[in-house]
């Protein structure tokens, strides 16, 4: 099977993106630029024993997505413990609302945002009482 094992987020400003993802989700970064041949920072997103994958921030090689354009790629969704406090941090650090919080009835709260680089991502808080 072709299970997802790594992700890459294309960014315009590497330091700004590292600050955003580091402060919102607690990710840490390691410089792998020498191996990649381009600015490339490996992202550790959690403990190896937990469900999830690690990825990287890579220097964008073209124009940034235009606001309001249709999705062209994959949207990554991050699990969070507290939706509302995570949203507040996202907005405080320069992220923007793309699709407001909504219930996945009996399962979770979900919503989508734009990061500081114009990429869309989701956050997901499990909650069996969501409706």
Automatic annotation (TrEMBL):
Record InterPro entries: Anthracycline_SecMetBiosynth, Glyas_Bleomycin-R_OHBP_Dase, Glyoxy/Ble-like_N, VOC_core
Pfam family, one: Ble-like_N
Matching PROSITE patterns: VOC
Stored SUPFAM superfamilies: Glyoxalase/Bleomycin resistance protein/Dihydroxybiphenyl dioxygenase
Domain VOC: 3-126
PANTHER family xref list: GLYOXALASE-RELATED, VOC DOMAIN-CONTAINING PROTEIN
Protein name (record): Glyoxalase
Taxonomic placement: Bacteria, Bacillati, Bacillota, Bacilli, Bacillales
């Amino acid at each position: 099977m072709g299970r997802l094992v790594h992700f890459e987020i294309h960014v315009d400003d590497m330091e700004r993106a590292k600050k955003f993802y580091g402060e919102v989700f607690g990710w840490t970064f390691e410089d792998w630029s020498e191996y990649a041949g381009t600015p490339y920072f490996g992202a550790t997103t959690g403990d190896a024993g937990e469900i999830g994958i690690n990825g990287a921030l890579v220097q964008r090689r073209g124009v940034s997505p235009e606001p309001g354009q249709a999705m062209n790629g994959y949207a990554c969704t991050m699990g969070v413990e507290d939706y509302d406090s995570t949203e507040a941090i996202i907005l405080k650090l320069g992220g923007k609302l793309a699709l407001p919080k909504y219930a996945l009835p009996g399962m979770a709260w979900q919503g989508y945002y734009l990061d500081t680089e114009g990429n869309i991502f989701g956050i997901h808080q499990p909650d069996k009482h969501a409706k």
